[in-house]
Amino acid sequence: MSCLYETHLHTSWASACAQSKGSQYIRYYKELGYSGIIVTDHFYNGNTAIPRNLPWKEWVKQFCRGYEEARNEGERQCFDVFFGWEETFDGCDDYLVYGLDREWLLEHPEVRNWTRGEQYRTVHAAGGCVVQAHPFRQHSYIRRVVLSTGCVDAVEAANATNFDQSYDALAMRYAKKLGLPVTAGSDMHAVQDLICAGAYGICVAEKFRSIDDFVRAVCNNAIDGISIDEGRCDYYGDEKVLLPVDVRDKDDRSTGKSWKDLIECSETSSFRTTSARSKDEKYG
């Protein structure tokens, strides 16, 4: 039986846009059959709820509190909770960082000033991974679409809070073109959303013992499938990108390439198959 994991979730303690405490999610994810969640609160340059004028070590301690509340409740309910974060660049593009912990952050205040390339290289050197979140999102607060083709390990191909299904269709095609693994996440901000709409996630054959298992699954393209609404990533050919697009390379330099060249791929690609799951289906 597959194990289902939430990969993208925010708590009200550390994310200014979230409405629920980390501890409030556990009961509902258990009822939906999830094996665990990864808390990915908005980090220093994103929509963080933690004041940036705090000394660095105090900032980190406060930032981790939302995760720690979720983890503690998870331990009480025998439910796994892992740590990550979501960082933002230029108010436009977001990246999910996995595999590093509070102790690592305490010793690395330079993360506040990373470029995309520095983020990718340093996270890799420390044993983690980087996933670009909702790369084709075109919500009102975003000034341009940034496609980081060489500074990520995977693409979040389905995000439950994307307003338009086409954003996910484009993200899936983009990942196929680059030959990158895909993830799916709910981008959960409130328990009420979880109750009313369910959640997205990834499916794997065995339970994760730690966040390191998730990192290995991403980097080795060993995710078995993604749990999403039926048709969520279906591509029709009339999808539009109405914002300026900045395609960047492995050195985080603008290439001037067209985004359209990055979604031209064969439907018979050897890319790992995804699987849509019903919200009523239970997992191990």
Question: Can you walk me through this structure?
Answer:
- By secondary structure, this protein is α/β, with parallel strands linked by helices.
- It has a single domain (3-262), classed as TIM Barrel (Alpha-Beta Barrel).
- 26% of the residues lie in helices and 21% in strands.
- It has a nine-stranded mixed sheet. Strands 6-11 form a two-stranded parallel ribbon.
- Strand 3 (80-89) and strand 4 form a beta hairpin.
- Helix 1 crosses helix 3.
- It is globular, with a radius of gyration of 18 Å.
- Mean pLDDT is 93; it is low at 268-284.
Distance between the termini: 6 Å
Helix content: 25-40%
Structural class: alpha/beta
Strand order of the largest sheet: 8-7-5-4-3-2-1-9-10
Instruction: State the fourth-level CATH superfamily.
Output: Metal-dependent hydrolases
Strand content: 15-25%
Largest sheet, described in full?
9 strands, mixed
Tally of structural domains: 1
* Arithmetic mean pLDDT: 93
Order of helices and strands: EHEHHEEHHEEEHEHEHEE
Treating each run of at least 4 consecutive H or I residues as one helix, how many helices? 8
CATH class: Alpha Beta
The 3D shape can be described as: globular
What is the annotated CATH architecture? Answer: Alpha-Beta Barrel
The low-confidence parts are 268-284
Rg for CA atoms = 18 Å
Write down the CATH topology. TIM Barrel
Number of strands: 11
